[in-house]
Amino acid sequence: VDNTEAKFTTNENNLKRDLAAGAAKLIEWLAVFGRDSHDGVTRLLYTQEWRAGQLAVATKMKEYGLYVYDDQVGNVFGRLEGTLPDNKTILTGSHLDTVNNGGKYDGAYGIIAGMIALDYLLQTYGSPKRSLEVVALCEEEGSRFPLTFWGSGNITGHHDIEQIKGMKDADGILFMEAMKESGYGDPSLKPTRRNDIAAFIELHIEQGILLERRGYRLGIVEAIVGQKRFTFTITGETGHAGTTPMTLRKDAMAGASEMILQLEKTALRVDKQLVATVGRITAEPNAANVIPGKVTFTVDARHTVENDLNQFCIGMISRFQEIAATRELHLDCHPWMDEKPVQLNDNLAGKLEQICQNHDISHHRMVSGAGHDSQIFQPHCPTVMLFVPSHRGISHSPLEFTSPESMADGILVLIDLLYQLGYEENFDENL
Length: 431
Ligand code: HGY
Ligand code: MN
Ligand code: MN
Known about the structure:
Elements: H1 3-10, H2 12-31, H3 48-63, E1 67-70, E2 76-80, E3 89-95, H4 108-125, E4 131-137, H5 150-156, H6 175-181, E5 197-205, H7 210-214, E6 218-224, E7 226-235, E8 239-240, H8 252-270, E9 275-277, E10 281-284, E11 290-291, E12 294-303, H9 306-326, E13 330-339, E14 342-343, H10 346-358, E15 363-368, H11 374-377, E16 383-388, H12 404-422
Parallel strand pairs: 3-4, 3-5, 5-16, 6-15
Antiparallel strand pairs: 1-2, 2-4, 6-14, 6-16, 7-12, 7-13, 8-11, 9-12, 10-12
């Protein structure tokens, strides 16, 4: 048996203990950047908290002996240069941004796992044959601006700077301004588009309860659901709450409420793969004694099958139009996200399965109901995801938790996969 194998497996328990301690420490360290007043983490793209987190990640990557650089939109990379001339890079990592009042693990875990894995590989085996990189992707959630996957979308050509011209956040701040203020967006900076990535591996928390409930230690993600997001604006007539008879109202809030309940009823009738959520709603003038003249709400709809998702959304919009017509309201529909369902790379999934078996780690192939940067990378290069359990399936919440032992399981498997792809002779070209 090749002695690296022996060395790696004999002190595996010690290694796992160290990985668990290291991961727990780094998760708490990164959560400081954006700690909010409700004990959660809020690190929105191009905000001060985001910038501080990004600088901290870059500094830590340098401490680990990685070559650190960033690109035009603020993706931060830590690189272990390969000794072979072929310019293939194996990339791992996840997103640095969070939702409002989010948890410590969503996105962050994939970044710290990649940092720990590269640190271990460099200390144990020296320089790889093929370059290995960990990336802190600048944005995935779409929490600040109405656009998701800004980091991975720029690397893969799925997005470009043209798309964000005129785009503003809820406070009316221009995307371009916020990016420039963070020191990015300048054409003189390193271009974002890359063609050297031979594989992308993303470690992430499951954000659901399947692994914990069924007792699996890791999830190997075969596919990611498709996702569409819309903003609907209902316009009626502002009026006095006390003097306007019920029969004479054009109440935008009542109209929106009927649409939202209709959405839930229809989604329940479709099938359990379909989920639809109204996550954000605003009313104008938003006063207790005024009939709202304008209500804006978002819809996030997802399904594993593209056609079923499309049919559901077409039906949703026509039902909203009927309700608006009956109530003499005006309906405006603004679709701003449309990501297709994606099958991830089966060869890489097979490698992860084999590694889990080698380490006697229970694992389960599954579909992700959450969207991830991996669905943007997969059409661009062979991509796979590895899930660690979320306690009680909680995510996008300060209560988000994954045990250090589970985080170590994921990092142990990542180390093996990066070793195979980065150090072993025969890189499997036809992944
Ligand atoms: O919304 C999602 O599915 C992911 O957390 N961005
Ligand atoms: Mn998320
Ligand atoms: Mn995420």
